[in-house]
Amino acid sequence: MKSIRARLLLISSICLSVVTASALLTFASFDQYSRLNSEISMSYDIVDAMLAYKYKTLQAGDDSTWRARAETLRPKFRADAVKAVLKDPSSRNLRFLSRSEKEYRQYLRPLTGYFLKRARFFGALALASTLIFSFGLLMYVLVRLFAPIHELSSRMEEFVHNRYSYEFAVPAPNEIGELQSAFDRMAQEVLHQIDELKSLDKAKSDFLNIASHELRTPLTSIKGSLALLNSGIMGKITEGAQNLMTIALDETDRLIRLINELLDLAKIEARQFPLHQEWVSSDELIAKTLQGLTGFCQTAQVRLEVENPMNVELHIDRDRIQQVLTNLLSNAVKYSPKGQAVTVRLESETEDGQMRIEIQDKGRGIAPEDQALIFEKFRQASSPQNPLVKGTGLGLAIAKTIVEQHGGTIGVRSRPGEGSTFYFTIPKWRRTTNTQLRAVV
Ligand code: ADP
Question: What's the gap in Å between 257 CA and the centre of ligand 1?
């Protein structure tokens, strides 16, 4: 009988039987005690009534009631004595009745004491066994159930916080032991799967790393050769061939960009991208980023504007945050209709006291279901309106990682057809006194 349920059932049934039996015996003894007491008081009543009968002070009709009661009186000698007085209320009969009733009472009195003691004893036994049972049950539950459950929950907590270590121990042969073994089996299975996933992920990252490195060198020389051919230095080429070469150059550029982004991401994920944080003027950062996008904006015929420039310094890795800003701005330009403006805005009145940088466009917007997805690797919003806009789907994933490395957050507010506002926050910033001119491209 080792299971906790069986033990509890056994202990409960023993204790309940003891308590029930004691309670029943208490009740029975008390009942007996009450009956003996009423016999004694009836004995006094009989003597009083028979005296009243002799001296004719008995209420009218009561003698017939006593005659009827005499038939049921037990033991028989009492019935005979009452009947004798009712028949002949002589002093002799009355004396006999008084004496026999007195003796009967003397016989009953010790019995009442005995039954009262019995009732008290079994009452106390019922009470004591109830208390002992409740206390025993409480201790059993505390020691056998709560303590191991608490221990198991601490081990689960350790597992959640990556501090789980398997310790060999023979599990208790009960339900808690089974639960502990099941948890250990599950934890080891999960750890095993995590190890497998990690090695798969490492193999994938290594492959991507090597493939990207190996692809970048030939692609760069293909690009150089194509550019040379396209420039006409190597001899005149037809207009058709030049068009084809321009397409090839564009696609090579796109491949090189993808490879660079893949390498960036691999480095960031492998934590080989330490941040070099310093105080950087926000004006300077924005001006430099806008400058780098001048040619791109002219081709796309989209204006870049800076709204409410602020005189602040940000504690950031200059190159990495410029990379984020460039990605968000080039996306905004890419998805804006010709002739529209893209606005950069700084916002310091945020709830968490961080500096927020917003990039607003009046482009096609992003469907609500796509707004969280686009920050994941290789995810792009479905774009029925503009299926020709080509990208890698990596830019926002890289931007998110960089911003989070700085302790900030990145997000988007958008309504399809009404444009989008991408934003990211920088937790560490301070005001400066030195105002500079903001660029408007
Ligand atoms: P890429 O632009 O290279 O595809 P990103 O990660 O930068 O990769 O962007 C992911 C997707 O998010 C884009 O493919 C596009 O569908 C959507 N997106 C990003 N910026 C905007 C924007 N300003 N307006 C509309 N859609 C956008």
Answer: 15
How remote is the CA of residue 221 from the centroid of ligand 1, in Å? Answer: 29
Is 302 exposed, middle or buried, given 0-12, 13-18 or 19+ CB atoms closer than 10 A? buried
Q: Is 263 exposed, middle or buried (0-12, 13-18, 19+ CB in 10 A)?
A: middle
Instruction: Copy the structure tokens of residue 342.
Output: 């893209």
How far, rounded to the nearest angstrom, does the alpha carbon of residue 402 sit from its chain's CA centroid? 29
Task: Tell me the CA–centroid distance for residue 228 and ligand 1, in Å.
Answer: 32
Measured distance CA(327)–CA(344) in Å, rounded: 13
Please give the structure tokens belonging to residue 151.
């221990």
What distance in Å separates the CA atoms of residue 367 and residue 391, rounded to the nearest whole number? 18
Cα torsion 136, 142, 145, 149 to 10°: value is 180
In 3D space, the residue among 324, 372, 370, 378 whose CA is nearest the CA of residue 204 turns out to be: 378
Q: What is the model's pTM?
A: 0.55
Residues contacting residue 107 through CB under 8 Å, at least 6 positions apart = none
Q: Is 383 in the pocket of ligand 1 (CB under 6 A)?
A: yes
How far, in Å, CA of 206 to CA of 214, rounded?
12
Cβ(33) – ligand 1 distance below 6 Å: no
Q: E strands within 87-200? A: none
Ligand 1 center–CA 327 separation, angstroms: 9
In angstroms, rounded to a whole number, what is the distance separating the alpha carbons of residues 46 and 54? 12
Please, what are the averages of pLDDT over each run of 10 residues along the chain (441 residues)?
81 91 96 96 94 88 87 90 93 94 95 96 95 92 89 89 77 84 90 92 81 84 90 85 90 87 79 84 92 91 88 92 95 93 89 91 91 83 54 85 93 93 95 53 34
| Other residues' Cβ atoms within 10 Å of the Cβ of residue 85 | 25
Q: Is the CB of 261 within 6 Å of ligand 1? A: no
List Cα–Cα distances, 140 to 13, 283, 316, in angstroms.
Answer: 15, 70, 59
